[in-house]
C-alpha cells in the first residue's frame, strides 16, 4: 500500500472552491490491491474536489478500457468502461467510512487517500458477464467458435421404418375397430 502515496489528497493548503486531480491507472495500481483479473488496463480518472468551509465534495469519474477474457470464447478483448461516484467528506470525532457516500475524518486531519474509492468505482463498473463484441454481432473469427460449430448437433431426418412388426399392426387395429 506504500505505492499509493500519490493518491493522497492534501486538502488543508487548498483554497475554497473546486480543484481537479487527474490520475492514469494501469495494472500496477490493481497490483497494490492484489487484484489480477485484468490482462491490461488503461483508465483515466478525474477527481473534482469542491472544498467548502465544513466539508469536501468529491466527484470521481473514470473512463478507459480493461483487457479481459470473454466468458463465452475465452478470447481476450478490450472492454470499455466508465463510471462516476460522489463522495462527501465531513469532519467528526473519529474516522468512519461505514456509509459508502459519506466519509467522516477526525478533526485535525489534513489529507486522505482516494485510492480505495478509485479501485471500487472501477471494479464496480466492469460487468460480471463479459462477452466479446464479435460474439454479439457474429464477426468474431475464433477457433473456439469454429470447434463449437462443428460439434453442434445437426438436424437429422429420421427415416420412418416401413417394416413394422405385424403383431403391433394387429394390436393397433383393435384400437380403431369398434
Shape: elongated
The chain-level mean pLDDT equals: 85
Q: Biggest sheet, in brief?
A: 5 strands, mixed
Uncertain stretches: none
Multimerization state: single chain
SSE order: EEHEEEEEHHHH
> Beta fraction of the residues?
35-45%
Protein structure class: alpha+beta
Helix count, per DSSP? 5
The whole-angstrom Rg is: 30 Å
Helix percent band: 10-25%
Q: How many beta strands in the DSSP annotation?
A: 7
Give the CA-CA distance, first to last residue.
89 Å
Major beta sheet, strand line-up:
2-3-4-5-6
Your description of this structure?
Helices cover 23% and strands 36% of the residues. The chain has a five-stranded mixed sheet. The radius of gyration is 30 Å and the shape is elongated.
Summarize the structure.
With 178 residues, the chain is of the alpha+beta class. It has helices at 27-31, 115-125, 133-137, 143-151, 166-176; strands at 8-10, 17-25, 40-51, 55-69, 76-92, 102-106, 111-113.
Annotation keywords:
178 residues, alpha+beta, five-stranded mixed sheet, two-stranded antiparallel ribbon, 36% strand, elongated
Break the fold down into its secondary structure elements and pairings.
Elements: E1 8-10, E2 17-25, H1 27-31, E3 40-51, E4 55-69, E5 76-92, E6 102-106, E7 111-113, H2 115-125, H3 133-137, H4 143-151, H5 166-176
Parallel strand pairs: 5-6
Antiparallel strand pairs: 1-7, 2-3, 3-4, 4-5
